[in-house]
What does this fold into?
Amino acid sequence: MNTFTKQNVVNNMADLLEEATMLFVESPEEAGELENPSSFVRANVRFEGRRKGDLDIAIPQAVLEEIVSNQLGLDADEIDEEVALDAAGELANLLAGRILGDYADADEEIRLSKPVATRGSSDDWGALHGDENTVSLLAEDEPFLIRLMFEA
Amino acid sequence: MAENLSGLVVDDSTVVRKVITRALKLSGASISEIFEACNGLEALDVLEDHPIDVMFTDLHMPEMTGIELLDELDARGIANDFGIVIVSSDSTTARKQAALSGGACAFVHKPFQPEQIREVLEKAAAASQ
It folds into this structure.
């Protein structure tokens, strides 16, 4: 991912989280060394238009709980697994729509797949974190990964 | 605004349905019942059994999309019986026009603030009169 695209991804996620949930993000450089989260959800959305590809996010449980509680007024212990996975998928869906909208022509139709969200493993986190198409952010002092891959 | 409004929220995301339902309940409007459906087909099932005043629906859903739902409501001659609001992250011009010409009275872009739901509720309730 080139520098322009990375900045676009970061800006869109920052705007989305702020608008939807009043959460504010910062770049990892501003917060020092990242620690892997103990629990996170990974969500994928595939997109097709003039460009095809995938968007993946890895979002820590603590951030997900904050997002859902801000949106639904629920306490963390009221958020079940179905709601947590659904929230992560919806976030990936909204982010993909925003980012791709910046690259699409006015009349271009972009088709997004139904998001697929699963509980992530430490191997998943390592693979995503080490990918050159991934950007890292911090939200609520927790690391947060976004990978955007365009097919050639 | 009319009293004792009955609403239907159609979205394949549990969280989005809950967020819209919560926004409607907190809107201050007089709402008697809010039904939920995961897609257009489920929405049609609800509509067969329950008269409603306003419907909030997503566009991209499995089984039956929002646009297909609007087409089906039109085919059944009930598209104008209640106010329809589209709530979607897809605001491409073509899709928006298709929704509005298919009977929707308003379009809310995701993510939305609860105030936006309250604002379009008034418009949708008026459309159902």
The mean pLDDT of chain A is 85.
